[in-house]
Amino acid sequence: AQSVTQPDIHITVSEGASLELRCNYSYGATPYLFWYVQSPGQGLQLLLKYFSGDTLVQGIKGFEAEFKRSQSSFNLRKPSVHWSDAAEYFCAVGAGNQAGTALIFGKGTTLSVSS
Amino acid sequence: GAVVSQHPSWVICKSGTSVKIECRSLDFQATTMFWYRQFPKQSLMLMATSNEGSKATYEQGVEKDKFLINHASLTLSTLTVTSAHPEDSSFYICSARENNEQFFGPGTRLTVL
Lengths: 115, 113
Fold this sequence. Notes:
Chain A is mostly beta strands. Helices cover 0% and strands 50% of the residues of chain A. Chain A has no helices and twelve strands.
C-alpha cells in the first residue's frame, strides 16, 4: 500500500534562510506526488505537483521540489524563507494508478520562521 | 483555477443531532469528489470517495451509516454526520476532481457539544 513519511514534525528556520522539508513515499509504480500548505484553520493550497517528466518541479511562492526515484523522495525546498511561509506542510501521493485519485497524506511538518 | 466551496465553514451542534456539510465545485463539473477528515494537529485521512449517481466508497473503519454521502449532481456532494457525538468533532475537507487534479475546499470545522 502507498504511504508517505515526513520525518520532521517541526522545523524552525530563520527568515531569509533556506528550507528543505523531507518527504519519502512508498509506491510500486511511478507516483503522483504533491506538496500542499495549510495555514491554521484553513484548507489546502497546492504548492506543486509531480506527474512525470522533469524531476525538478517548480511551484508557487518560490518553492521547488525534486523527485528522486532512487531515494523514494520528493523533498520541498525554498532558497529564502519569508515569515509568511510559517504554516503546516503536507506531502501527498496519489492512491491509485491515475492522477486525480484520492490522496494519501503524510503527517505534516510544521514550519516556524524566526526573525 | 478550479474553485471548490464548502458550507458551512464552521458549525456547532448538540450531541445526537445531525449535521449536513455541502461541497460544491463552482466552475467545473466533478464526477468524483473526496471527503477527508483532519483531527487537530494531524494529517488528512480519506473517509470516502463520492461518485455522482452512485453509492460512495468508504474507507476501512469509516461507518457508512454514520457518515452519509450523497452526490446527486455533478457540482454538489453532501456529507451528513448523523447522531453526532463529541468524538466526531473534526475538520472536514472535501476535494473535487477535474481532469487529473484535485481541488480542495476550505474545510468545515465541526464541533459537537
